[in-house]
From TrEMBL:
This is Trehalose operon repressor. GO terms for biological process: negative regulation of DNA-templated transcription. Keywords: DNA-binding, Repressor, Transcription, Transcription regulation. It comes from the Bacteria.
Length: 237
């Protein structure tokens, strides 16, 4: 016989999927659930922990547990596409806000990522992407000014890749990617809507031209509840 908390978890999953418990609404309190299921708060806690681990709810300290929106955007891992190209395939129109678009001296970290010498300048472009009035992606782009001598806020608001390829004539060829999960930084907390979220998914892109020149480093920082990172793999024989 299954543990009671597993049975409670399964029943609550059904209620979430049938929208008895609706997305973005709070569940009843632990005390209310314990009374409803005629069990202890410890058993309810175990069921709620299982719901949180499997992406159904988000526990918010001091407030309770809110149901997470289960509709996620498929984000291709292996492809090299711009956000605009990805957004055009989505049913929901995102909003891009440009917080920074300026030439800056590359700090030690960016120098290392782009293999630059001391005091070299890069374009620093910081943008947030919002869906349903929630800021859920923070994009931080660094482009070598030797390759990209000019860029503007207007370009950053629409599509950088469209500008690079169709205006500057650059041939963007491939990228090396890293995906990590880490705790949000103070900047993440300031620029994204992260209340109740304790992790963020970071995709690091090292982007190269067709002559194998590294010209761009990007960190795309995603709130974890809205994206499903997908790939297609074929076994070689």
């Amino acid at each position: 016989m299954r543990n009671k908390y597993v049975l409670i978890y399964q029943e609550m999953v059904q209620k979430i999927e049938k929208e008895t418990f609706k997305a973005n609404e709070f569940l009843p309190s632990e005390n209310e659930l314990a009374e409803q299921y005629q069990t202890s708060r410890e058993t309810i806690r175990k069921a709620l922990n299982l719901l949180a681990q499997n992406g159904y709810i988000q526990k918010i300290r001091g407030k309770g547990s809110t149901v997470i929106e289960r509709n996620k955007f498929d984000f291709p891992v292996s492809g090299l596409v711009s956000f605009k190209e990805l957004a055009d395939k989505m049913g929901e129109k995102p909003i891009t806000a440009v917080h920074q678009c300026a030439k800056v001296s590359a700090n030690d970290f960016i120098q290392k990522q782009l293999k630059l010498k001391d005091n070299q300048e890069v374009w620093e472009i910081i943008r947030t992407r919002s869906f349903s009035e929630q800021r859920i992606i923070l994009d931080k782009d660094y482009l070598i000014t030797k390759t990209v001598p000019y860029i503007s806020k207007d370009i950053a608001e629409t599509s950088i890749y469209n500008y690079l390829e169709n205006e500057l004539g650059l041939i963007i060829s491939f990228a090396k990617k890293e995906i990590i999960v880490e705790e949000p930084t103070a900047e993440d907390r300031e620029l994204l809507d992260l209340e109740g979220f304790h992790n963020i998914v970071v995709i690091k892109n090292y982007v190269y031209l067709d002559d194998a020149t590294l010209f761009q480093y990007t960190e795309s920082r995603h709130r974890p509840d809205k994206f499903r990172f997908v790939d297609f793999a074929r076994r070689e024989h």
